[in-house]
């Protein structure tokens, strides 16, 4: 039986699934942080640091102020402290440790050269010996960065990677190495999984690919609340042949409930345990790579909000600014803020604030309160608004 939802009902279910129903603590704890990660299943990593790196921001949006060191220790600290691991999930991502077995099928396919772009796949075949020599050096010497290999760092940028850097990324993609820690400048140091991840995680049984894909679809549905098949596939970057059988199986099992959302042309699914609140209140600034908005078509379907990341555009072609965060207020996206942390001056700079045409009258007051909260979290002394419109 298909459930009919209004767009407002669907939006509330989505916001609840994404963790926007909880009152934020005065100071978020390690437990708050890990509950946020468990709920979302993924913090997307991005190195842009004009404000704060993207993987720090989704937790702040949901739990408020927390110690950045808690995330860093959980992601890149000592082995006994690890609560997260890095892997290609949505994009480069931090994931809770219990998801490690669910990605081993992807690691195995990468090891066989069945997936990945051509420059990586060749290390499974013609250039395997080169990759094995890189792995042997890490095995012998311990954590190494690409720059620790002669000519390994390349000249910068994705397409300028050196052969060694490609070999390292294939070893990482195939699960033979993982991230030990990060150096200054956010450079990844690679090491063997058994020297980085707790043994209890590596000892978890490895499900077959179909079972893992079913579980990933279920985790996607829990995080998304209401989602089309394309949304469910996108969350962990599953291809149609990897996800469609899993969606059908979870529907047959009653885990996914079919729904129709007013105004959506596509059939959608709702997790059977998704909460359906009657009202959502609160405010949050959302990183460009926040799971609530990272899929742009879904953001338009849910909020009527057309959002594009403009950091990749030359300045004259930008509409709203360089690093623009949408502002969520209650159940709507009502503004966009181009933010920059001027750490030398101790100022959080709102380079431009752009209100949506239907933004309520209290939007600026609530937005400024949120900017003050963010400045305090980032240990900046004050907020400065350069332009608003």
Structural notes for this entry:
The chain has 389 residues and is of the alpha+beta class. It has helices at residues 7-17, 30-40, 57-63, 68-76, 104-111, 118-121, 128-141, 163-173, 193-196, 199-202, 209-224, 229-235, 240-252, 296-303, 363-377; strands at residues 3-5, 43-44, 84-88, 92-96, 178-182, 188-191, 226-228, 256-261, 268-271, 283-285, 324-329, 332-342, 347-355, 382-385. A 5-stranded mixed sheet has the order 10-11-12-13-14. Strands 1-8-9-7 form a 4-stranded mixed sheet. Helix 7 packs across helix 8 (163-173) and helix 11 crosses helix 13 (240-252). The longest helix is centred in the middle third of the chain and has 16 residues, at 209-224. It starts with a strand and ends with a strand.
